[in-house]
């Protein structure tokens, strides 16, 4: 088996072979921190979190970089418009860096709840201004960039490979761009590396070309090179970033270094609402915090953050995901089923007898793992991988209901849930928080006494007593489950 990724650059599934054996360098375009994250962000960052986790599962040592954009991302792709952070900061009447601080913290809070592992480094654009100026200077020196009135542009015509990722050619781009007579660029397809700051622009830095700020594309090239080297294995991002953002990243990096910038380009698809892209600019987004609290007109209830994860895993990362409350409800009930199963499994493990692990169960687990890997190797097919977890859940429930599996057998099942469902998919937790403030051990002990009393009454054919215990407990929401391994209880 070999891991294959659909590479946007070659437009086919390529076998993944890292540049350096055993090591993977991975860069994913991070958030522009001017608002809370919505479901669209969840799709993107869960998708790459799964890729990161799976590479680690395969034994690679992975360095994962995800930048924080806190300067230079303009409201308009054509190098016009205002800085997104500055616009939002003005509205809230705070400094743009204070806004960035707030929304960076908010982003990590949401991602932690979605059980996304933290990247190894989360560098900020504003913390890498000298490096960005140095790259612009390098491009000026080798004839790929030119300065006009304090701004510096990349000369697209000087770089023959421009368009190789998006498949657009220069002529199409020229004719497709709206004609702006006031543009100071040599060609409308050229893009800004450095922008001259107007006096009222808050975030500005000194440069050889006067006061200004970096173009958005520049930061990713610079931070990728700084932390991962001139050629990296994987660069990921949303499909909407393929052009112009990633195309520009390639042009400026390869023109500067004369080396291939990225070997595998991975793009995730978007979340849609009624068929339209969910996005901040379209104002049809649902914030993750609203999903977690249930406070949105499109939501019927509050959802577990891991239900969002389930929803994302249900579709392929390269397919669009159409949001609906019913899809989220289905994801939640799927998650509940798996969680309940794992909890019962762990409870049964505590009481199980010693003995050798059941060879038949071990063989089944091997089969699950094989099919899980096959699905994930095929360009991270998470919906098939998830179906394997559901089959494990079915097998485990049958095992617990029909037999008396011993400790070693159950531990093997639990290990497999922890590995595939936990380490890779991130939907099974090593430990679940207690549901109430009640000490679980105490509750188990007291319920054990009740169960014993009930069994004694039945043994003595004291049906009135047995019924009384059952009815009393039912009034507290407690039901008894009689299994070959003994009686268990459930609290609703
Ligand atoms: Zn980027």
From TrEMBL:
One GO cellular component term: cytosol
Binding-site list for ATP: 280
Binding site for Zn(2+): 29, 220, 245, 249
Any one Gene Ontology BP term: cysteinyl-tRNA aminoacylation
Note on how the cofactor is bound: Binds 1 zinc ion per subunit.
Chain location of the short sequence motif 'KMSKS' region per the record: 277-281
GO MF, one example: cysteine-tRNA ligase activity
Reactions accelerated catalytically: tRNA(Cys) + L-cysteine + ATP = L-cysteinyl-tRNA(Cys) + AMP + diphosphate
Cofactor(s) this protein requires: Zn(2+)
Subcellular location: Cytoplasm
Database matches in InterPro entries: Cys-tRNA-ligase, Cys-tRNA-synt_Ia_DALR, Cys-tRNA/MSH_ligase, CysS_C, Rossmann-like_a/b/a_fold, tRNA-synt_1_cat_dom, tRNAsynth_Ia_anticodon-bd
UniProt cross-references to SUPFAM superfamilies, sorted A to Z: Anticodon-binding domain of a subclass of class I aminoacyl-tRNA synthetases, Nucleotidylyl transferase
Major subcellular location class: cytoplasm
EC number, as in UniProt: 6.1.1.16
Motif 'HIGH' region: positions: 31-41
Gene3D superfamilies: Cysteine-tRNA ligase, C-terminal anti-codon recognition domain, HUPs
Cysteinyl-tRNA synthetase class Ia DALR domain ranges (all copies): 371-443
Keywords: Aminoacyl-tRNA synthetase, ATP-binding, Cytoplasm, Ligase, Metal-binding, Nucleotide-binding, Protein biosynthesis, Zinc
Broadest EC class assigned to this enzyme: ligase
Quaternary structure, from the entry: Monomer.
Family: Belongs to the class-I aminoacyl-tRNA synthetase family.
Protein name: Cysteine--tRNA ligase
Native source species: Limihaloglobus sulfuriphilus
């Amino acid at each position: 088996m070999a891991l294959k990724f659909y590479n946007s650059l070659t437009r086919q599934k390529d076998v993944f072979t890292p540049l350096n054996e055993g090591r993977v360098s991975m860069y994913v375009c991070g958030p522009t921190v001017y608002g809370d994250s919505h479901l669209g962000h969840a799709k993107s960052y869960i998708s790459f979190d799964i890729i990161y986790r799976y590479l680690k599962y395969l034994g690679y040592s992975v360095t994962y970089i995800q930048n924080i954009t806190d300067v230079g991302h303009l409201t308009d792709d054509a190098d016009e418009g205002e800085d997104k952070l500055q616009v939002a900061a003005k509205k809230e009447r705070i400094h743009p860096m204070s806004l960035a601080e707030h929304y960076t913290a908010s982003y990590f809070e949401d991602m932690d709840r979605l059980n996304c592992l933290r990247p190894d480094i989360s560098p900020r654009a504003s913390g890498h201004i000298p490096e960005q100026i140095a790259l612009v200077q390098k491009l000026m020196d080798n004839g790929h960039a030119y300065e006009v009135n304090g701004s510096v542009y990349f000369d697209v015509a000087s770089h023959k490979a421009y368009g190789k990722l998006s498949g657009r050619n220069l002529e199409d781009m020229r004719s497709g761009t709206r004609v702006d007579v006031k543009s100071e660029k040599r060609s409308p397809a050229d893009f800004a590396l450095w922008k001259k700051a107007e006096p009222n622009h808050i975030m500005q830095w000194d440069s050889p070309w006067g006061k200004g700020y970096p173009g958005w594309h520049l930061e990713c090239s610079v931070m990728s090179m700084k932390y991962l080297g001139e050629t990296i294995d994987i660069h990921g991002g949303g499909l909407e970033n393929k052009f112009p953002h990633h195309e520009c990243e390639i042009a400026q990096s390869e023109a500067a270094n004369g080396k291939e910038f990225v070997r595998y380009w991975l793009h995730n698809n978007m979340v849609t609402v009624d068929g339209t892209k969910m996005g901040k600019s379209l104002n049809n987004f649902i914030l993750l915090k609203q999903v977690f609290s249930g406070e949105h007109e499109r939501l019927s209830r509050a959802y577990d953050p891991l239900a969002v994860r389930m929803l994302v895993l249900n579709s392929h990362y390269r397919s669009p995901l159409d949001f609906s409350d019913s899809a989220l409800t289905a994801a939640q009930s799927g998650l509940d089923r798996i969680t309940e199963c794992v909890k019962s499994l762990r409870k049964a493990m505590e009481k199980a007898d010693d003995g050798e692990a059941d060879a038949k169960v071990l063989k089944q687990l091997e089969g699950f793992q094989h099919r899980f890997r096959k699905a994930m190797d095929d360009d991270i097919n998470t919906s098939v991988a998830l179906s394997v977890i559901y089959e494990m859940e079915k097998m485990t429930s049958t095992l617990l209901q029909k037999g008396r599996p011993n400790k070693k057998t159950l531990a093997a099942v639990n290990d497999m849930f922890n590995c595939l469902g936990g380490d890779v998919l991130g939907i099974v937790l090593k430990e679940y928080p207690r549901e109430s403030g009640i000490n679980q051990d105490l509750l188990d002990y007291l319920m054990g006494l009740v169960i014993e009393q009930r069994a004694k009454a039945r043994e003595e054919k004291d049906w009135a007593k047995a019924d009384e215990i059952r009815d009393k407990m039912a009034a507290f929401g407690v039901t008894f489950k009689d299994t070959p391994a003994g009686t268990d209880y459930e609290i609703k």
